[in-house]
Amino acid sequence: xxxxxxxxxxxxxxxxxxxxxxxxxxxxxxxxxxxxxxxxxxxxxxxxxxxxxxxxxxxxxxxxxxxxxxxxxxxxxxxxxxxxxxxxxxxxxxxxxxxxxxxxxxxxxxxxxxxxxxxxxxxxxxxxxxxxxxxxxxxxxxxxxxxxxxxxxxxxxxxxxxxxxxxxxxxxxxxxxxxxxxxxxxxxxxxxxxxxxxxxxxxxxxxxxxxxxxxxxxxxxxxxxxxxxxxxxxxxxxxxxxxxxxxxxxxxxxxxxxxxxxxxxxxxxxxxxxxxxxxxxxxxxxxxxxxxxxxxxxxxxxxxxxxx
Length: 308
What we know:
Blueprint: E1 8-12, H1 15-20, H2 22-32, E2 36-40, E3 47-48, H3 49-57, E4 66-70, H4 74-88, E5 103-106, E6 117-122, E7 127-132, E8 142-144, H5 155-174, H6 180-202, H7 207-227, H8 231-243, H9 247-262, H10 267-276, H11 286-303
Parallel strand pairs: 1-2, 1-4, 3-6, 4-5, 5-8
Antiparallel strand pairs: 6-7
């Protein structure tokens, strides 16, 4: 960032990540390198166009050089929405286009590799518009996945992020849009997460475990980005907004429920997932293997103290 001459950055994140202590780690790095940071900490999953515009107006006089989003889902999408509106002054392309703020993402889970659809409320028309916030003008300048940032963070935080990545991998694998490439990425991610996540949760200073999780998150992101989302992610956005809960935890809660619903049509795939999670499935029927998979997901939630 110093090589690009950035002196003032706007950090976009959410209260869950502020509470975790992760954002403080990042701001200390900026401070050490004499980069001034401004914090926007109220990124929401569902935001009105007017709220996003107001967020931008608050920082226009600060001479922001770039935006840094920390986290997945809300923070990443909110940062993209801010950049889009800052450069276009409208949700649809206009003639008055400014040079957009560069975007740097600091990833906490696989969702940061994905251009999700973000519901925005157009208050002038009083209607909800579902938009895929993507395009060359808001392509990230840099994407950072740094395992050391996770060291020493709370067990609940690490578990929620890990289960979120597991959700992306499983949803990609059972997706109707899956293909051999996404299947390979998804199963590899599931295997790595199943081996490393408990270690990272039980001992948050295990750098090797966090490095393994980072690789798994990247693999899950590649799988999910090319195989599309399923009912877990679709429902989690709504539950997260309605109950004001982190999307990561909502995904963890819904993952076993949705796979139980899917069971009859993806028995074989769920059995394969169970095998990737370390369960001996060689002598199981597809149905028993699928049930073992769902039981293992519930067990992970229970072991991590997450709702199930």
